[in-house]
Amino acid sequence: RDAKARYVKFHWKPTCGVSCLMDDEATLVGGKNHSHATQDLYDSIAAGNFPEWKLFVQVIDPEEEERFDFDPLDDTKTWPEEEVPLRPVG
User: Fold this and answer.
1) Rounded to whole angstroms, how far apart are CA atoms 15 and 68?
2) Are residues 21 and 35 in the same domain?
3) Residues 6 or more apart from 36 whose CB is under 8 A from it?
4) Are 3 and 21 in a shared domain?
5) Residues 67, 61: Cα–Cα separation, whole Å
6) Which residue range(s) make up the domain with 7?
7) Which of the residues 13, 26, 75, 84 could staple to 21 if both were Cys, CB 3.0 to 4.6 A apart?
8) 88 three-state secondary structure
9) Exposure of 80 by Cβ count < 10 A (0-12 exposed, 13-18 middle, 19+ buried)?
10) Are residues 46 and 28 in the same domain?
11) From its phi and psi, is residue 35 left (phi > 0), alpha (psi between -120 and 50) or beta?
12) Residue 68: Cβ within 10 Å count
């Protein structure tokens, strides 16, 4: 809009939620099928349950970079949602 540069972090969030395995479950499942997550995806698609994600962005002005106690341009860092809220895009 105003032709100013912005820093943007993109987030794709699955609409089906996220579920994780506990250590003992991961060992058991991974020992039986090391591609269990891929197999689950294929099985879901075959059953007509297609994966969907929603896109969110976090946006800051370059001048705001110094307000963080970490480098916001470091891809390994997470921007706090309390300070930089997620904005739905699609």
Assistant:
1) 30
2) yes
3) 29, 30
4) no
5) 11
6) 1-14+56-90
7) 26
8) strand
9) exposed
10) yes
11) alpha
12) 16
Query: 22 and 9: one domain?
Result: no
Same domain, 46 and 60: no
For CA atoms 75, 60, 10, 81, the dihedral sign is: positive
Query: Is there a single domain that holds both residue 47 and residue 26?
Result: yes
CB 58 within 8 A of CB 86: yes
pTM confidence score: 0.75
Domain identity same for 40 and 26: yes
pLDDT tens, residue by residue, 43-89: 999 999 999 999 999 999 999 999 999 999 999 999 999 999 999 99
For residue 1, pLDDT beyond 80 = no
Residues comprising the chain, all counted:
90
Both tokens of residue 33?
Answer: 């099928």
Asked if 58 and 79 count as a contact pair (C-beta separation under 8 A), the reply is: yes
Residue 80 CB contacts under 8 Å (≥ 6 apart), including other chains: none
